[in-house]
Amino acid sequence: MIAKLDSAPLGMTVRIARIDWDILSHDEGRRLREFGLMEGIEVKPLHRGSLFSREPLALGIGRMQVIIRGRQAAAIAIEPVEVEPAAAA
Amino acid sequence: MTGAIPTIALVGNPNAGKSSLFNALTGARQKIANYPGVTVERKAGHASLADGRPAALIDLPGSYSLTPASPDEAVTRDVVLGRQAGERRPDALVVVVDAANLDNHLCFALELIALGLPTVIALNMVDLAERDGLTLDPERLAAELGVPVVPTVAVRKRGLTDLLAAIDGAILSHQTQAAAIPAPQPTDVELHQRARAIARAATLAETPVRRWTQRVDAVVLHPVAGFLILLALMFVMFQAVYAWSEAPIGWIEDGIAALQGVATDTLPDGFLRGLVVEGLLAGVGAVVVFLPQILILFLFILLLEASGYMTRAAFLMDGLMAKVGLSGRGFIPLLSSFACAVPGIMATRAIPDPKDRLTTILIAPLMTCSARLPVYTLIIGVFIPNRAVGGLPVGLQGLVLFGLYVAGIVGALIVAFVLRRSVTKGSAAGFMMEMPRYQWPRLRDVAISLWQRAWIFLRRAGTIIAFTTVILWLLLSFPKAPADSEMRQVDYSIAGRIASGLETVVRPIGFNHDIALALIPAMAAREVAVSALATANAIDAGDDEDQVAMSLGERLQGRWSLATALAFLAWFVFAPQCISTIAITRRETNGWKWPLFMVGYLFLLAYAAAGITYWTAVAFGLG
Predict the structure, then answer these.
(1) Whole-model pTM?
(2) Total tally of structural domains belonging to chain B
(3) Full domain range(s) for residue A24
(4) Residue B55: left if φ>0, alpha if ψ -120 to 50, beta else—which one?
């Protein structure tokens, strides 16, 4: 089974393997790319939801943090980062 | 365009510190208006170039790219392309980028540079980037981008002279240059790759992200603790609105009483004195008195927004809001609606989903806006005892006020839940936004915004409220009751007779003649209810010395039961009594359908809530 971003554990850096653009709307896909979320990029899930829900998801990407919902995270397949590059935050 | 004042547009991503830079360049003298045909705010000001020539500056809405996702972003695109009606194409662009987030912000910068206008990059917040362990090479960045790059720290006014000189230089050198040849449009993925490559080239040294923002977030965004902190913050905010405003309210009251004294002494007895003392000063004074509370509320909202906390609050609330079919995006407009529903409804433009947005607009008036505060404060001050609750440092009055706010919020959530399953049915809304870094709010930026809000409120008090109170005074004063009449002047007057008609409708829910009278002019704005009560009270007191000495509160206490007072409070939780809100809803929804729907459902709710409150209170022997 391919791991998806919506079920990724918090605090661990992962790499985006593939994004299923077809299940996202045109605008959602574009905004993801504007945030810099695309294939090959490393992200770190940081916070998930509050008292009422396991949504949304806060992601660290580079020096930025972005918020997306579980539905968008479910379109993002991830893979482990085997070798931590020295410069990674 | 030789000789004309050059127009310079500030443009950049959200959270790039654009507004701070705009404030630093233009100072407090800004003109805020709307772009024609759309309700997107146009902020303009003036700056002096290096040689003293003036330049017009405009602050464009934050955007991620030239492909808009909202009306705000569409304005940004249209202005820089010269397509915006009523706006000349800018002579130069200042692209504001966050020095600590070049990877992302350079994408939009590249798109803007490709337009071929004279462009300068403001490498903003370089101090924060350095704090985060990032050392950049502005010259290398300028070489890679092909335009001047000026490091700035807007909040400390650093780099502004260099920035203005660079803009001047860019405009001059551009005039001698041939027009740029448009390059083939790169895809957004290509743009990102280029942005990342340039950012990497311009970065001299980089240490890992500082941990403290993450440490704060670990608590503030904690699923349980974070939520409690949010609740506590909101509670403190509403207590402060009460506690801190007491002294300044006293000063304003004394000032108005002094003015009334002066007017009474200088004006001859008769129509004019009545109009000024009982009409204008009593009515407008009763509203202006609430300026301190409104400013305290806005101060909190502005501080939360400037510090970066507001987006955290949106994150925490998104889960709850998703359950009623809204998104965390709606939290910011709804929280703004606590100050005033008009800017709140305008802020819904940031919500991309149309159904989500419409629902948020429809429930925005349920947030307790500052115009209700005068009504709540008056009634609570008169009818709720001022004592601590069970030995806690929490006043009963503050608790009741908090309860009224909660009633509005719970009502709004229920209404949203119902609407999203009926009239505004649609697919689940999305929620995608950037989480800004924490920052110390800058006193100057907060002060400018606070001043703008105070001015809007005072202008309202001086125009719409002054006008309606004077009209009401006239309607209350004429025709004059004959000396031998059994009826009070207030009941005998035109307004009194209209109110008597309305009273038959609202008597079942415990409303008396005073309230019926106050409800009519309060259609213009809720706080007018208070000035209407004050004006009617002043006329009713007439020349009787003892009556005049009694405050409005003392008189209400004698005339209203507790059940009636509580029903009156419940009414104002829901009642759509604000012309401005109805007007802005019409504009934002492009028609009369939704504002009429809103007014209808809110009046129904208000009637039901007031009725249930009254009947329950009477059943408990409070009638």
Answers:
(1) 0.76
(2) 2
(3) 5-80
(4) beta
